[in-house]
């Protein structure tokens, strides 16, 4: 185990994911979300398929159609679709902050799905973390951001995906998981396109942004995988929260966002609750 390298790869992955989100948000100013998901997913599938071919690995496997992977795929579709809508229509900083609640939902879901034992302290941290999410959303307030609800729905989808991943067949390669994940993007995009019935041909600038987002997304996925394999989870996982820092910086500099005190306070509560839950879970 090399915790230093693992932590650095985790920070790199979070920075790359934030860049990917930013590029998608920029493209979504004109292109429909469904179209972005289809093109992004198709590009990612192609890269992972080529990776498997170069490594002489099978591109497809029967295990990809197992019951567990089908359940995982359904959650992946919902998570990707709703979170992409969130970053397209709501502030990047608030969407990213809400996304950080995913580990809390996973911890709560593990009790129901895998019957894991969670003490009262972790339950308290989970509920306090959810309070941070409510603080960011501020339902009933005059400045309530309705579109941020999509980020919360995305969190539920991603949490379900992560829980299903725990029961995934262990012999599936990273390339196969990547192909399946990006395929779900295509399906999510088709669902969204059937609803909006809109397709706009991207210009050269948007095409460049899209290609960059695809490449960066694949690099982020690989960096995340390397981080989790190189270092101890208890050491490496907390660096996931650097994504929130990157998102706020990019949101302010490039999208002229101005997170208010409630968003900042709610973000801090989510991060602290998540870190505490992680530490207690490793004891």
Automatic annotation (TrEMBL):
<dbReference type="Pfam" id="PF00892">
    <property type="entry name" value="EamA"/>
</dbReference>
<keyword id="KW-0472">Membrane</keyword>
<feature type="transmembrane region" description="Helical">
    <location>
        <begin position="176"/>
        <end position="195"/>
    </location>
</feature>
<feature type="transmembrane region" description="Helical">
    <location>
        <begin position="98"/>
        <end position="115"/>
    </location>
</feature>
<feature type="transmembrane region" description="Helical">
    <location>
        <begin position="262"/>
        <end position="279"/>
    </location>
</feature>
<dbReference type="InterPro" id="IPR037185">
    <property type="entry name" value="EmrE-like"/>
</dbReference>
<keyword id="KW-0812">Transmembrane</keyword>
<feature type="transmembrane region" description="Helical">
    <location>
        <begin position="146"/>
        <end position="164"/>
    </location>
</feature>
<feature type="transmembrane region" description="Helical">
    <location>
        <begin position="36"/>
        <end position="54"/>
    </location>
</feature>
<feature type="transmembrane region" description="Helical">
    <location>
        <begin position="122"/>
        <end position="140"/>
    </location>
</feature>
<feature type="domain" description="EamA">
    <location>
        <begin position="5"/>
        <end position="137"/>
    </location>
</feature>
<feature type="domain" description="EamA">
    <location>
        <begin position="149"/>
        <end position="273"/>
    </location>
</feature>
<dbReference type="InterPro" id="IPR000620">
    <property type="entry name" value="EamA_dom"/>
</dbReference>
<protein>
    <submittedName>
        <fullName>EamA-like transporter family protein</fullName>
    </submittedName>
</protein>
<comment type="similarity">
    <text>Belongs to the drug/metabolite transporter (DMT) superfamily. 10 TMS drug/metabolite exporter (DME) (TC 2.A.7.3) family.</text>
</comment>
<dbReference type="GO" id="GO:0016020">
    <property type="term" value="C:membrane"/>
</dbReference>
<feature type="transmembrane region" description="Helical">
    <location>
        <begin position="207"/>
        <end position="227"/>
    </location>
</feature>
<feature type="transmembrane region" description="Helical">
    <location>
        <begin position="239"/>
        <end position="256"/>
    </location>
</feature>
<keyword id="KW-1133">Transmembrane helix</keyword>
């Amino acid at each position: 185990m090399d915790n230093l390298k693992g932590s650095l790869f985790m920070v790199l992955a979070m920075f790359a994911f934030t860049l990917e989100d930013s590029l998608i948000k920029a493209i979504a100013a004109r292109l429909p979300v469904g179209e972005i998901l289809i093109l992004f997913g198709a590009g990612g599938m192609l890269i992972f398929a080529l990776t498997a071919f170069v490594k002489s690995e099978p591109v497809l496997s029967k295990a990809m159609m197992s019951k567990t992977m089908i359940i995982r795929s359904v959650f992946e579709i919902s998570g990707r679709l709703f979170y992409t809508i969130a970053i397209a229509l709501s502030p990047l900083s608030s969407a990213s902050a809400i996304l950080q609640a995913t580990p809390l939902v996973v911890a709560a879901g593990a009790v129901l799905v895998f019957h894991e034992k969670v003490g009262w302290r972790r339950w308290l941290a989970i509920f306090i973390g959810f309070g941070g999410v409510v603080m960011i959303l501020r339902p009933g307030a005059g400045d309530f951001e309705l579109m941020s609800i999509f980020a919360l729905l995305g969190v539920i989808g991603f949490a379900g995906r992560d829980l299903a991943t725990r029961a995934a067949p262990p012999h599936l390669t990273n390339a196969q998981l990547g192909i399946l994940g990006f395929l779900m993007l295509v399906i999510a995009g088709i669902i969204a396109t059937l609803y909006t019935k809109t397709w706009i041909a991207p210009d050269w600038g948007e095409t460049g942004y899209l290609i960059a987002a695809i490449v960066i997304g694949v690099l982020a996925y690989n960096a995340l995988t390397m981080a989790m394999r190189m270092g101890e989870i208890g050491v490496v996982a907390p660096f996931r929260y650097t994504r929130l820092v990157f998102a706020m910086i990019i949101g302010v500099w490039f999208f002229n966002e101005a997170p208010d005190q409630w968003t900042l306070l709610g973000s801090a509560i989510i991060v602290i609750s998540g870190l505490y839950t992680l530490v207690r879970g490793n004891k």
